[in-house]
Amino acid sequence: MTKDLEKELEQEFNRFIEFGNLLDKKMRTYLIQYLQNKFNPDEHIIPELNDQYYEYFRKALDEIFLIDGLLDITKLNNKIRKQVVLDTLYWLRKTYKKIRTKNPYENEQQRLEGWGVTPMKAFVNRWNALPAYLSSVYTRDQIDTYFFTEKFKTLIAAQPIEEIPPDRIEKIEVILHDALAQWDALLYAKILDFQMSKFEEEQESYVDFMDKKVKEYSKLREFLNPFTDYFGWDLSRKLWQETSFDILNHYDDLLQNEQSIKELTDILGNMREAEIEIEEEEFEKTIIRQEWVVDESQRTEIVGVHESDDLNHMLTSEAGLLGNADTELLFLKKYVDKKLMTFRYEDKKLIQSEDHFTEINQRINQKEKGPFIICIDTSESMEGRPEQIAKVLSLGILKMAMNQDRKAYLINFSTGIQTLDLHDIANSINEIVNFLQMSFYGGTDATLAIYEALQQLGTHDYEDADILMVSDFIMHKLDDDVFQQIRFYQQNKNTQFHCLTLGEHANSELVNIFDTNWVYNPKEKGIIKALTKGFQDIKERY
After folding, report:
1. What is the Cα–Cα distance from 271 to 397, expressed in whole angstroms?
2. 138 to each of 50, 115, 157, 418, how far by Cα in Å?
3. 397 with 525, same domain?
4. Cα–Cα dist 405/372, whole Å
């Protein structure tokens, strides 16, 4: 967990302990320690406390955190962990306040409090009302009102307080305190039992709420996994809001069952795959070496002796051979044979050398996969099965684009246009749901949609995009300037314009503008036939 989140949680914990209305400060501290243990069991120990309220709350929290997957989710998502803690603390405060204010024993509580502050003089005058009331509310097994009646009769009788000796007054006070204490214990037990029954109802409701949210989060995480992985969409942003994603699941099921649409989205996924560029870079390298070598021309250091005819450096023992006629001949022979023992000199010098060579490195550049611009006809003529297929195809392309790290731009067109940049998926989920829920209506004007698509081709994000239009193409021809711009992008920018025709009455003049046209007959489920190019051509082409 980040330091900022840890700090925020710590502040919430301290606020709950210091200013919460739940039980007392000691109990609140123990409950916070319990929560901390659930998330960091190695650092925090669950405290043991012999208190009925604490035990009820602790057991309730146990049930909450036994919800399958809850703790796993809080480990994966720190923001969810924070939200779970905040929701739980809020629920504890709200529930405790609720069960404390709705108490059916308030009248009895007021009676008990009244007897507790009754002066002794007033009690002596009307003591018999106390056991009479208690006997009407509790059985003799619960509280022995007969015992208290007899005791008060004996000690008080009909005497006024002025005539009762002080020692008997003290005994009356002791017995009265005992009676009120037993009554308080019985009343407290009844109130606690009532509060806990209500608390269990609230607990069950909250556990159901949390369980639903955990399942919803898991469901969303699985369904929207491509979006979260690529765009880093924070699912905690919407998890605790009442946003329904059933419509997404509905169209996802249709996509799985509609094999031909699935096939089309898969083929579209092969278009504009990332191109691999290999760049070669040449580097000239020079390696400089330095080494010591023997210099024969220099004689600076005696390193030993060797045999030679060098008279200048011969040993004195060799020169001694010349001093005797008997050994003179031996000296001459050694000289001729270069066998004179002479000093060997040596010197070294530092030699520097350079080696030059050329190295070629190859670098592979992976280009970003091309984005999509999808134009969906939402006119009235698309109502029914074509509408379903258009929505399913949109969702299929969306999921495929996210899986393949590709941006997508959705344009809905009828008499006007609505746009949705799916590059910002973090803020687009609700808009996707709205699109899937919308009803198709109005006439058909594709010109504005094409204008918008062409405008996006001029932006940095979508300059390499391919365009797909989904329509029944029951419409007039495009404006001439739009037609000319399409031709420009086809011929100069290598932009591919594809269309999916939903129906049998398309304007052929319009359809022929596109590089590729698929026809889907809604009356024959599962059939797609290529008009201008087949699937295999598309696959080979890309």
Report:
1. 12
2. 27, 17, 24, 73
3. yes
4. 11
Element (H, E) at 280: strand 276-294
CA–CA dist 471, 440 (Å, integer)? 12
Q: Which amino acid is at 80?
A: I
116 part of a folded domain: yes
3-class SS at 71?
helix
Cβ neighbours for 505, distance < 8 A, ≥ 6 positions apart: 472, 474
Alpha helix ranges (H) inside 159-258: 166-223, 225-231, 236-239, 246-257
Total domains in the fold of the chain: 4
Which of 231-245, 282-296, 297-311, 425-439 shows the lowest mean pLDDT across its residues? 231-245
Q: Which of 332, 358, 384 is the last residue of a domain?
A: 358
Token duo for residue 451: 């204008």
Give the start-end residues of each E strand in 87-158: none
Query: Residue 37 in contact with residue 46, Cβ under 8 Å?
Result: yes
In a domain, 344, yes or no: yes
Q: pLDDT per residue over 299-324, tens digit each?
A: 667 777 888 888 877 888 887 887 78
Q: How high is the pLDDT of residue 229?
A: 45
In the predicted structure, residue 344 carries a pLDDT above the cut 70: yes
Same domain, residue pair 348 and 376: no
Q: Which domain holds residue 70?
A: 3-101
Task: Report residue 98 CA to chain centroid gap.
Answer: 35
Q: Is the overall model pTM greater than 0.85, yes or no?
A: no
- The answer to whether position 518 is within a domain reads yes
The amino acid at residue 461 is D
384 with 346: CB under 8 angstroms? Answer: no
CB atoms under 10 Å from CB of 497, counted, come to 21
- The answer for residues whose C-beta is within 8 angstroms of residue 404's C-beta and 6 or more apart is 269, 369
Segment (H or E) for 367: none
d(CA 181, CA 266): 79
Q: Has residue 404 been placed in a domain?
A: yes
| Amino acid occupying residue 486 | I
